[in-house]
């Protein structure tokens, strides 16, 4: 089946933005379930229109740019954040036939590159705000994201070695026998942790230490520009969930149900896991975060590469 | 590591717990009679004002939100005006403790929000209720030694007649 490309892009974009908006409601309801309370339940049936109400509110709020801010960069920063996340979705294969560029032979590198650009968003936001809190928040975010990006890439190498391809479609197809989450369990765990840190979700949401930094890098932001950071975070959750699904959980593959549904189910389960992490775990201290990254996760991901390579070498014909 | 996973699991188990939220406008929370909410001025069983405008409540008030002025009629004291600024009131209940006549009382009513701040200044008309509040039988002038119309000195409950200082009798 072939879908015209402009239609595919438009539908993907609309679905992403819609889902990211809906996710704000889903997350609050789920947090309510796990914290023995209701969450938003007033607007519409079950509070389902809460996201719409929040959207209307944020659109009509005063969108204020501080006079001391670097205007151009200040406006650009949230757009970069949003763009990098949306760009990464281009190479995610939703099903065998529904994806914008999943056959791209450097697909995984493209995702890593696009996610790496996300650092610009927080750093520029922190710098352009021209405020101590925002700057420190931006610095923290940059240090955290760059640190975790290092072994995020390394943890994926095991998958690439096993699938013998950087193309996400090939990686999914290589999992038709066994999902990579079994042979690459270590890599999957490291990638999940790195992904959480990359989207700065709890327990790694250090860029936004409200006790010591105000709101962190988006302290000076208001209105829809703040909303874009917010939506980018939720789209980021979906991106990491979609990546884990694609790379470790067999993508669209699964018995009985159609591929798209399998993909959606897997992504939804991972998103729920993200929310559970937020409901259960406290924020780490900053030095703990860095120590965990450099002293535990980086060696683990290197070990994963060595072990995977060794196993592949032993199994290789004539090895 | 194990702690973290255990925390995740225990939090996950909360999925089956009952929600503790009180859906407020539909379900009212049960409040004890001594809940410290909206302040009222009560009347004695005869239907007359209990407040004798002694000003102790205004003195006890830590945020100075009570203002009153004494007036007098037929030997009875009563407040000429009595004003409570509820936008300052912290509902500590010190005024109720300080009151010698049980006149000022805090009720379990807390639903007193207003759109306009000046509306939170309650005058005597807003404060004075028609009943005795939490102390149904108490009548200050019935037990005090003050002479009022219908009750001379020494006629109060458990009060002996005043001593006649000019008499030489034992």
TrEMBL record, chain A:
The protein's topology relative to the membrane is: Multi-pass membrane protein
Which GO molecular-function terms appear in the entry?
A: NADH dehydrogenase (quinone) (non-electrogenic) activity
EC annotation from Swiss-Prot or TrEMBL: 7.1.1.-
Question: Cross-referenced InterPro entries, in alphabetical order?
Answer: NADH_UbQ_OxRdtase_su1/FPO, NADH_UbQ_OxRdtase_su1_CS
User: What residues form the membrane-spanning segments?
Assistant: 72-94, 106-129, 141-160, 172-197, 226-249, 261-281, 293-314
Q: What is this protein called?
A: NADH-quinone oxidoreductase subunit H
Q: Does the keyword Repeat apply?
A: no
Q: Which Pfam families match?
A: NADHdh
Q: What does this protein do?
A: NDH-1 shuttles electrons from NADH, via FMN and iron-sulfur (Fe-S) centers, to quinones in the respiratory chain. The immediate electron acceptor for the enzyme in this species is believed to be ubiquinone. Couples the redox reaction to proton translocation (for every two electrons transferred, four hydrogen ions are translocated across the cytoplasmic membrane), and thus conserves the redox energy in a proton gradient. This subunit may bind ubiquinone.
The reaction(s) catalysed by this protein are:
a quinone + NADH + 5 H(+)(in) = a quinol + NAD(+) + 4 H(+)(out)
Note the NCBIfam families from the entry: PRK06076.1-1 (NF004740), PRK06076.1-2 (NF004741)
Under the subunit heading, UniProt states: NDH-1 is composed of 14 different subunits. Subunits NuoA, H, J, K, L, M, N constitute the membrane sector of the complex.
Which keywords accompany this UniProt record? Cell membrane, Membrane, NAD, Oxidoreductase, Quinone, Translocase, Transmembrane, Transmembrane helix, Ubiquinone
Annotated family: Belongs to the complex I subunit 1 family.
**Whose protein is this, by species?**
Nguyenibacter vanlangensis
Indicate where this protein resides in the cell: Cell membrane; Membrane
Automatic annotation (TrEMBL), chain B:
Membrane topology, record value: Peripheral membrane protein
| Residues noted as binding [4Fe-4S] cluster 2 in the record, renumbered to the chain | 61, 89, 92, 95
- Enumerate the InterPro entries for this protein: 4Fe4S_Fe-S-bd, 4Fe4S_Fe_S_CS, NADH_quinone_OxRdtase_chainI
Cofactor: bound how, per the entry note? Binds 2 [4Fe-4S] clusters per subunit.
Q: What is its main location?
A: membrane
Where in this chain does the record put each 4Fe-4S ferredoxin-type domain? 41-71, 80-109
**Role of this protein:** NDH-1 shuttles electrons from NADH, via FMN and iron-sulfur (Fe-S) centers, to quinones in the respiratory chain. The immediate electron acceptor for the enzyme in this species is believed to be ubiquinone. Couples the redox reaction to proton translocation (for every two electrons transferred, four hydrogen ions are translocated across the cytoplasmic membrane), and thus conserves the redox energy in a proton gradient.
Cross-referenced PANTHER family: NADH DEHYDROGENASE [UBIQUINONE] IRON-SULFUR PROTEIN 8, MITOCHONDRIAL, NADH DEHYDROGENASE UBIQUINONE IRON-SULFUR PROTEIN 8, MITOCHONDRIAL
HAMAP family, A to Z: NDH1_NuoI
Q: What is this protein called?
A: NADH-quinone oxidoreductase subunit I
According to its UniProt entry, this protein's organism is Nguyenibacter vanlangensis
């Amino acid at each position: 089946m072939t879908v015209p490309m402009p239609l595919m892009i438009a539908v993907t974009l609309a679905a992403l933005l819609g889902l990211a908006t809906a996710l704000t409601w889903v997350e609050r309801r789920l947090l309510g379930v796990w914290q023995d309370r209701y969450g938003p339940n007033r607007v519409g049936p079950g509070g389902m229109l809460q996201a719409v109400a929040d959207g209307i509110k944020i659109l009509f709020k005063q969108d204020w740019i501080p006079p001391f801010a670097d205007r151009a960069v200040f406006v650009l920063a949230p757009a970069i954040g949003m763009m990098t996340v949306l760009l990464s979705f281009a190479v995610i294969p939703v099903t065998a036939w529904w994806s914008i560029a999943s056959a791209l032979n450097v697909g995984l590198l493209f995702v890593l590159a696009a996610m790496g650009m996300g650092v610009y968003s927080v750093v520029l936001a922190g710098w352009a705000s021209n405020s101590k809190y925002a700057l420190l928040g931006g610095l923290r975010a940059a240090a955290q994201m760059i640190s975790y990006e290092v072994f995020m890439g390394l943890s994926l190498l095991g998958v690439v070695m096993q699938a013998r391809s950087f193309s996400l479609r090939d990686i999914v197809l290589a999992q038709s026998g066994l999902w990579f989450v079994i042979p690459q369990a270590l890599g999957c765990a490291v990638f999940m942790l790195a992904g959480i840190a990359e989207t700065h979700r709890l327990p790694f949401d250090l860029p936004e230490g409200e006790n010591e930094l105000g709101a962190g890098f988006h302290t000076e932001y208001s209105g829809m520009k703040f909303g874009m950071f917010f939506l980018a975070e939720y789209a980021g959750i979906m991106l990491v969930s979609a990546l884990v699904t694609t790379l470790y959980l067999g993508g669209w593959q699964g018995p009985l149900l159609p591929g798209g549904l399998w993909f959606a189910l897997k992504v939804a389960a991972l998103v729920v896991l993200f929310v559970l992490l937020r409901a259960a775990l406290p924020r780490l201290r900053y030095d703990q975060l860095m120590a965990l990254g450099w002293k535990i996760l980086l060696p683990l991901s290197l070990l994963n590469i060595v072990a995977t390579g060794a196993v592949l070498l032993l199994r290789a014909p004539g090895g | 590591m194990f702690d973290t996973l255990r925390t995740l699991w225990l939090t996950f188990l909360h999925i089956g717990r009952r929600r503790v939220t009180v859906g407020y406008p539909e379900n009212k929370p049960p409040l004890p009679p001594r809940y410290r909410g909206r302040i009222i001025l009560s009347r004695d069983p005869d239907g007359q004002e209990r407040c004798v405008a002694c000003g102790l409540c205004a003195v006890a008030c830590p945020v100075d939100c009570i203002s009153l002025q004494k007036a007098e009629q037929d030997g009875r004291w009563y407040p000429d005006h009595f004003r409570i600024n509820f936008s300052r009131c912290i509902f500590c209940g010190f005024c109720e403790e300080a009151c010698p006549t049980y006149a000022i009382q805090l009720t379990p009513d807390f639903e007193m929000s207003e759109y306009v701040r000046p509306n939170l200044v309650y005058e005597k008309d807003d404060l004075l209720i028609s009943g005795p509040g939490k102390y149904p039988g108490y009548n200050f002038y019935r037990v005090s030694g003050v002479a009022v119309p219908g009750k001379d000195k020494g006629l109060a409950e458990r009060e002996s007649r005043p001593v006649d200082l000019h008499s030489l009798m034992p």
